[in-house]
Amino acid sequence: MTTAPPTHALPPTVLGYPRIGPDREIKKALEAHWGGGDVAALIEAITSHRRRTLDHLVGLGLEEESAVPADGAVIDQVLDASVLLGLVPRRFRDAGFAAVAPDAPEGLTLISALARGTSEVEPLELTKWFDTNYHYYVPEIEADVAFAPQAAALTDRFRAFRELAEQSDRTVGAAPLPRPTLLGPVSFLVLAKSVGAAAETSQAARFDRLEELVGAYAALLGALHEAGAAWIQLEEPVLSSDGWDIPREQVIAGISSAYEQLGRLTERPALFVPVSYGTADDDALAALGGTAVEAVGIDLERGALPSAEALRPLAGTTLAAGVVGGLNVWRTDVSRAAALLDTLGERHQGPLTVSSSTSLQHVPHDAARETQLDPQVAGWLAFADQKVGEVLALAGHLTGGADALEGLRADDAARRRLQEQHPQVRVESVRSRLTAVEPQDRRRAEAEHRRAAQETGLGLPPLPTTTIGSFPQTGEIRRIRAAHRRGSLDQQGYEEAIREQIADCVRRQEDLGLDVLVHGEAERNDMVQYFAENLEGFITTTHGWVQSYGSRCLRPPILFGDVHRPAPITVDWIRYAASLTKKPVKGMLTGPVTILAWSFVRDDQPLADTADQIALALRDEVQDLQAAGVKIIQVDEPALRELLPLQVAERPDYLRWSVDSFRLSTSGANAATQLHTHLCYSEFETVIDAIDALDADVTTLEASRSGFEVVSALSEHGFSRGIGPGVWDIHSPRVPGVDELIERLRLAAEVLGTQRVWSNPDCGLKTRGWKETEASLRHLVNATAVVRAELAAKVPAGV
After folding, report:
1. What integer is the mean pLDDT of 274-297?
2. Catalytic residue among 519, 678, 731, 779
3. Which of 758, 693, 685 is nearest to 726 (CA)?
4. For the chain, first and last CA: distance in Å?
């Protein structure tokens, strides 16, 4: 027996909204709490933010019942689901943590510990969320840890959201009922990892626990029904990809089984299952259509339009058409979107509504706040608030016909004309240079020749110690930059103040005994934004913050035109740092793919062409650094895997052009210049061929948070150049012990070879404080000395 039909239809909606606050209120409250602040202040900040968001979304026009998504996650939606399911890893239980309500003081302490670790316990692994710059905390499935659904906690949360909605100043009459959101059971298991005894059997064995997990979800749905929830959004984004370690046919079977069981519940909210980040293919739609799910969402920003045949299993089911993109900041092409809706109306035998393609957590809050932008470019933009308006306008097209969009169509046409006329959109000198690129422009000398030249020129010891680039961005550095922005510190005063910070950073590294130094990046607000501010073709925002992970936020630049470099960017800073020491100082650049991945990028030409434009600008910077005497240059590509297509068949083409772009940026360096690159928070095993093809002399990788798994993968691959698997997790405040660093360095040296291994953390140190940074680096240097001595003792005399 299935539940009764919902008391009201699924209205036009968005799948989620930014959770950090328009002025990063939640970020600031979390960090204040982590710094020792009272948990009551954090709870008040969370409550205030939820109240404002509900009120704001109703004010924007989401006034119908269940139109407003009620995302209760404070840090991450996957972490939130883990805690609501009572999934607390054993190492945390052994340290005194228990499964508790996530919104309670003890729950916020638990969430913080899972995300950041403690002095004794390492945190959950952090990895990328589909092909976005967002990162989630990976649930751990242990054979002897049962799901313990926190049904009362979810009920309390929903009631709190409902009470906040009823307090809305904008509400006239009855308050619209919010719609709880939760990661769906199949996606939860696919995105999780097996650990302990469960991992020894098979990583994929975690999927055997689906029936048990569905039982936990049933308890949560029952509680929500009792509390009065009419709809729940259960997100199943894994259906948009076939690149998981769980076979696709097993995922599809899991969807059929899970939602057939949940659909049979007699007391539950109506089920809305959106499939985001790509195409919901015929098998996915058939699996969902064979259940009692009341609504299915499809992504029409990244995904293909389904055929009438594919939609037939969903006859009678509400279809939410995600025609308003949630991953970029350009205004919706309303003519295209209306045409898609018209076609769906002809093909789908059931109710049709409009939604965003994904949660809007990937875009900033409000484009209207960006008063300092080029006004012409500003007119092309739609942030979260504007996207809500687009959803409602397109919903009006469904009920009011073509005339409902007449004004928007005219605005669209005018915008496109202005875009074509903007002088930076098409720069012939940039395009001519790109056309002239030859295959040899993407090749360096052979690796063995380079290695010999670099060993002679650098004279580094075994297991060279270094860092990834950035050092703590202190309050003093932020004050210097803020004063410069305000105009209260002139350019000369700013440069002198930054040089003092660089000198301090170099001195500290020398005192610690590191072998290869960096200048610390005191002049850089963000590794991508800094370059965007110094390249033509970009604009940067004032309030355009989005969440990357945890409390970490960034303001992605907006790449709207042809990219070129008007002048050297980093050379003077690196030259100054190098003048302060006899040790080598790395030049630090951000690679073309990462600049693409961490920006909002123009959509009127292939990504490969835009990447190569950036690569040519960086190529000039590499050659200028080399001419200035810099012997080591690092070109970071932490986001190489981030843009990897979700469909396996599309990956070879992406990996080809992304590798080609990196090599175009670096291949102007001579053999004696040692080129480094850095990658982090990715499942490297899937792109290890591409990492090798980058042809960097030294590659540093995140390794500690994922259990050093990449070391064996590199060995099996036969990686032959320098490699630095990061030996401690800088995204946690814990200081690693010398013994654990020794153990990891021994393993790396044994598996990969002494002559190739570098000793380094797994990412930049920007977000850490100096006290923990210096303590950790001191441990790193000491651990390296121990392993070097061990290795020297093993070398036969005379060798």
Report:
1. 97
2. 731
3. 758
4. 79
- Structure token pair of residue 376: 């012409």
Amino acid type, 639: A
What is the token pair recorded at 146? 């049962």
Q: Rounded to an integer, what distance in angstroms lies between the CA atom of residue 336 and that of residue 321?
A: 13
Q: In this structure, what token pair is assigned to residue 529? A: 């934004």
- The Cα–Cα gap between 382 and 390 comes to 9
CA distance 324 to 251: 27
Do 66 and 8 touch, CB atoms closer than 8 A? yes
170: alpha, beta or left? (left if phi > 0; alpha if psi -120 to 50): alpha
Q: Is 564 a known active-site residue?
A: no
Q: How confident is the model at residue 786 (pLDDT cuts 50, 70, 90)?
A: very high
Compute the average pLDDT of residues 664-685: 89
For residues 57 and 115, the answer to whether their CB atoms sit within 8 Å is: no
pLDDT in tens, 323-370: 999 999 999 999 999 999 999 999 999 999 999 999 999 999 999 999
Using pLDDT thresholds of 50, 70 and 90, give the confidence band for residue 168. Answer: low
The set of residues, in sequence order, having a beta carbon less than 8 Å from that of 424 and lying 6+ positions away, is: 536, 537, 560, 561, 562
How far from 781 is each of 18, 259, 636, 691, 705, CA to CA, in Å? 41, 53, 23, 27, 20
User: How far is the C-alpha of 592 from the C-alpha of 152, rounded, in Å?
Assistant: 48
List residues bridging with 183 in a β-sheet: 235
Is the pTM higher than 0.90? The answer reads yes
